[in-house]
Amino acid sequence: MASPMRSLLSDPDRYLQSFRLFLERSTEHQSMQEFVERQLPAVIASIGNGKSTINVLSVGGGAGEMDLQILSKIRARYPGVTINNDVVEPSADQISKYKERVAQASNLENIKFTWHQETAHEYESRMNAEKKTKKWDFIHMIQMLYYVKDIPATLRYFHSLLESQGKLLIILVSGNSGWETLWKKYGSLFPLEDLCSFVSSADLSRMLDSAGLKYQLYELPSHMDITSCFVEGDKNGELLLDFLTETLDFAKTAPPELKRQLMEELRKPGCSENRDGKVFFNNNLCVIVVEP
To answer: Digits of tens for pLDDT over the chain (292 positions)?
Structure first.
């Protein structure tokens, strides 16, 4: 009998709801912010040397939370320089939130924003059709490579757009995270429907090695409180389970045996740690900075 499980991405509203709850319950953005504060300045130290304009491309920029923090670091390093910030983002909802955020921010003088409502692949196809090869001083792809069909080809394309001092920054779940444990074991049973694939920093390192590219890795510790996932019927717990499995209504549509095994796995040390009566999923991230 065909499984009634469907991909979470087939319901964009529920996907966004679960994603926002994930951000609320996890230290995802705090971990990235710490990296931006402490380590990003060294990464961008020479991207704009001798330039009057710095071109930044945000691929899968979402609602812009991290983009604006990255831009403020580039501005601090290169005061007075014009920054062109192009955003490639397929979700109209996320773009409108991004625009609101820009409208409310006060420290964006000299930064010009252009939004493109399209996927990374659509951007690449459009540029090729227009025979354009615009070069960029800084390209970042934060938590978006899961939604790309051909990751090595996408990496090759965006890497080819770097200026000689440019950097490509990628953030993904770490090969040492609970995601790796969960998805390597159960990923083949989830209904991805070709809408997303699991990839971690371990997979990405292998791809970059085989492409002969130079890169640096930075591990970022992060966790997510998934205690509510173990409370039968808890709405937030069900949303988080959807996010963890990329499955729409996992709690209601998963075969009982798969659900039982997965709930057991989520409590194990490979995925989570138990602290003060709560269950914290290992959401460790990895930043990969690729050289031109």
So the answer is: 446 899 998 898 999 899 899 999 999 999 999 999 999 999 999 999 999 999 999 999 999 999 999 999 999 999 999 999 999 999 999 999 999 999 999 889 899 999 999 999 999 999 999 988 899 999 999 999 998 989 999 999 999 999 999 999 999 999 999 999 999 999 888 987 666 788 999 999 999 999 999 999 999 999 999 999 999 999 999 999 999 999 999 999 999 999 999 999 999 999 999 999 999 999 999 999 999 9
**Three-state DSSP class for residue 169:** strand
Look up residue 97 and give its amino acid.
Answer: K
Residue with tokens 């001083």: 137
Binding site membership: which residues? 28, 283
Q: What global pTM score does this model have?
A: 0.90
- Please state, in angstroms and as integers, the Cα–Cα distance from residue 216 to each residue in 34, 86, 150, following that order: 17, 24, 22
- Does an H or E element contain 31, and which? helix 28-38
List phi, psi (to 5°) of 275.
-140, 125
Q: Helices H, strands E: what count in the chain? A: 12, 12
Binding site for substrate, by residue number, is 28, 283
- 3 state DSSP class of 172: strand
The residues, any chain, with a CB within 8 Å of residue 60's CB and separated by 6 or more, are 88, 89, 120, 141, 142, 143, 144, 147
How many C-beta neighbours within 10 Å does residue 146 have? Answer: 20
Instruction: Find all residues with CB under 8 Å of 55, minimum gap 6, and list them.
Output: 83, 84, 86, 134, 135, 136, 137, 138, 163
Q: Which residues pair with 172 in a beta bridge?
A: 286
First to last CA, the chain: 50
C-beta of residue 84 within 8 angstroms of C-beta of residue 112? yes
